[in-house]
Amino acid sequence: MKRCFVFAAGSYYGLRERPGDPGDFVIAADAGYRVCLEECIRPDLLVGDFDSMEPPADFARVRRLPVEKDDTDTLAALRAGLERGCTDFLIYGGTGGRRLDHTLANLQSLLFLRRRGALGFLFDNDFLWTVIENGEVRVARTVEWGLLSVFCLGDRAEGVDESGVQYPLSNAVLTPEFPLGVSNHIVEPTARVSVRRGALAVGWELPPLA
């Protein structure tokens, strides 16, 4: 496992895990650099078109992107992490702010990572999102009556099972037109979500930061 920490320019709700393990790679996406300064983290790379800030004059490891491009700054950062062989991506500042479109783009980017053999984790306000495809995820209950939500990414997701939750599912079909999986609750020490065919965005509640 090689971790990549990506700091984007959306809303920042606090650091859940700090880089520092051998092999950790830290990328600031545009104004996500300001979060790195706030947390006293020196990124290994700064990526962006710099429409939100100018790159600092004393920072040499900059990958400047054109303003007119297909990738968001965050997706470009994820590509850079994949180039470095990272397998686990922790994304901060990828939700909230004034741009719901960027939040949706970053949720889709979790599927981009999953289809390239990596795992992405998108940190929201006391909430964490990941994506599974033709697989499963197990979630430890860290909040009493903690929320868990599951959404279909794609035309349909077949063979969906949810256990350890208030409203279990067995061999269900989820579609993007009906949010059946929203606002469940984890009632066992561990919840399990799996899908036999298709992709799911899975999010669950985290304990508040002290």
Task: Spell out the key features of this protein.
Jelly Rolls; Rossmann fold; alpha/beta; single chain; 14 strands; 10-stranded mixed sheet; 3 helices; 210 residues; 4-stranded antiparallel sheet; 2 domains
Protein described:
The chain is of the alpha/beta class and 210 residues long. The chain has two domains: 3-125, Thiamin pyrophosphokinase, catalytic domain (Rossmann fold); 131-205, Jelly Rolls, CATH 2.60.120. Helix content is 15%, strand content 36%. The strands form two sheets. Strands 4-3-2-1-5-6-7-14-9-12 form a ten-stranded mixed sheet. It is globular and about 55 Å long. The chain starts with a strand and ends in a 5-residue tail after the last strand. The model has no long low-confidence stretch (mean pLDDT 95).
Q: How confident is the prediction overall: mean pLDDT? A: 95
How much of the sequence is in beta strands?
A: 35-45%
Task: Tell me the span between the first and last alpha carbons.
Answer: 28 Å
Tell me about the biggest sheet? 10 strands, mixed
Q: Which structural category do the helix and sheet elements fall into?
A: alpha/beta
